[in-house]
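To whoever picks this up:

The parser on our side crashed when reading a file containing two proteins. I've narrowed it down to the boundary between the first structure block and the second sequence. Both blocks are reproduced below exactly, byte for byte. First block:
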Amino acid sequence: MPEAPHSIIVTNARLGRALRKCCDARASDQGLTFARMEALLVIRTQEGLSQTELADRLMIETPTMNRTLDGLVRDGFVERRPDEEDKRIRRIWLTDSARTEADKLAEFSFGLRSALVAGIPTEELDAAEATLKKIFANLRHLSGTTERSDG
């Protein structure tokens, strides 16, 4: 039997699940989940994306994105507006009342990411990121896709 592949894939998957669980627990008091928080953080910095563009940025399927957006619209965080040139396209914007909340989420996200990498030298983080980008490239090659790997 050949030698098992490096465990970085399993470790990375576990890290993703643990991060999602931590964010869900911390964001639940604001009526959010990791998925909703992640969407709000992208919308905060890139308002006016179409639903499809937002789904692409988050590397999720459009129907999944639409369900997430339905909840964010219902709870007053975002609004869908028709594209000025193509009325079939709906663009996503933060509501005025959600801007402060989105800023708080950005601060929370920054603090969490800082805490997660605390004590790890920049050189090690850069090497790990470069390795993960290569793994993403291999995955794209295997799946025949051109999905973004830069989160």
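<<boundary where parser fails>>
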Amino acid sequence: MYSPVPDGFGRRDAAIRYAESLPPPALAQVVHCFWELRTLVPLEEDFHYHALPDACVNLLLDQRDPDIAGVTALHTKATALNLGRTFHYVGVQLFPGVWQGDRDELIDRYVGTPYRGRLPLVATSRRCLRQDFAAMAPELAALVE
């Protein structure tokens, strides 16, 4: 099965955590992984996340501001995203070709504005607040089911 190339980080240190978990078996054909990227303490300088075009769509939730969410997909080129000094994102990475939603919802840049689409991204983000990453899996799975 296709395995997307992991995105790159400008640096790695103990203050930043990236984690992935596998979806439940019923979603294994459509979901590559659930993921979390977060700071554990404020950073001394901005963090630059190097996102690579991998043909995957991600459902992205900002856990610092649950109104900020989006459906992301890079089209043709890598992008460096300045995430600042504190951040906490979780998401669902779909395999290429799985997204059947509105193509107009896809964003190919930094997601920093409130979500106004029809998917329950904001409600899901609110339900995930203050849970540890492993406990979010049922909520993340429900976005795809």
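After patching the parser it read the second block fine. Residues 8-142 form a domain with the Jelly Rolls fold (CATH 2.60.120). The radius of gyration is 14 Å.
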